[in-house]
Amino acid sequence: MKAIVLAGGYATRLRPISYALPKLLFPVLGKPMIYWTLELLRNFGVDEVVLGVNYLSDLLRAVVGEKYGNMTVNYSLENFPLGTAGPIKLASQMVSINETFVAMNGDIITNIDLAKMRQRHETNQASITDALYEVKDPRRFGVVQLDSDGHIRRFIEKPILKEAPSHLINAGVYMIQPEVLEMIPPNRKVSLEREIFPVLASEGRLCGFTFSGYWFDIGDMAEFRKANFQLLKQRSLGSLLQESDVKIAADAKVRVPSFLGESSQVESKVSAGPYVLVGKKSQIMRGASVADSILFDNVTIGEGSIIQGAIVASNTTIGKMVRIEAGAVISPHVQIHDGVRIGRNAIVHPFKEITSNIRANAHAM
């Protein structure tokens, strides 16, 4: 079984963190987003996957490497944006595909049952089966009209609410027959949703697979927070989640749900949680308070500092008696000096040294 993962986006809505870190390396419950996808595919039986990459691909390759367990990982580099179908065509040229394969967006996290999806795909003798998920507001997505036998009759990309034929949206996971590759023109930008789906739908060869469970489309900071906090709540079951070699001082208070990554440290008189995720090799120093926040790997929170409702990216050092308010986003490789205050919804760009206060909603570029 082969799989193609679309991993080449620029992640503009996750800037400024994504200026220095590929979206698929953003941590969700302590591990990079791409590992959730690779684990899903490996458990389904995929033995070879191609990542369609572009922006910051060297960083992604350095972390993921050429193997994930017993699954081979290849990289297909887009020299220019190819849309949603173009990368599938390009990536398919790296491996021999002569049977049903999986293609999926790299920025989604889901527990979809791929075995059941493939069974439905085979039963319907579809050329493409599109995973469908029901949402309250479908306006940001591709929306389908599904008939009683599971065929997709209409597909409308990002409709206004009154024109949406349903609340079933394209979840970004596909079972595809190899002959579909012949429909995709090479070496140009091609939209799967606008150029391929309508043709297949008109011929009765496009089917849908509706599933429940969880599904997160991590396109912006709000969805990134939502995925982390909802999965934390689901998996913690009222207990502290922690990895190996975690050190928690006897008089520290860690409120659940919270997550502590490998080799992280929580020092004396710290108040952490609820809803705190601490990355690998990060430390919260004496007397600091952190709540409703996500800390990436290698983050240091200085003594007496207060972090409330913030995102602090990797390799960042926060000094003593710093206050970071709700909605603030601190990018990778930042140093914040002692006593600085970062206002609500303030944004700090990568590789910055912050020596004075940043007001609410401001950008430190």
Structural account:
With 365 residues, this protein is α/β, with parallel strands linked by helices. The chain folds into two domains: 221 residues, Spore Coat Polysaccharide Biosynthesis Protein SpsA, Chain A; 128 residues, 3 Solenoid (UDP N-Acetylglucosamine Acyltransferase, domain 1). It contains seven helices and 35 strands. A hairpin with a 5-residue loop joins strand 10 and strand 11. The radius of gyration is 22 Å and the shape is elongated. The protein starts with a strand and ends with a strand.
Q: Compute the separation of the termini in Å.
A: 45 Å
Number of strands: 35
Number of helices: 7
The structure class reads alpha/beta
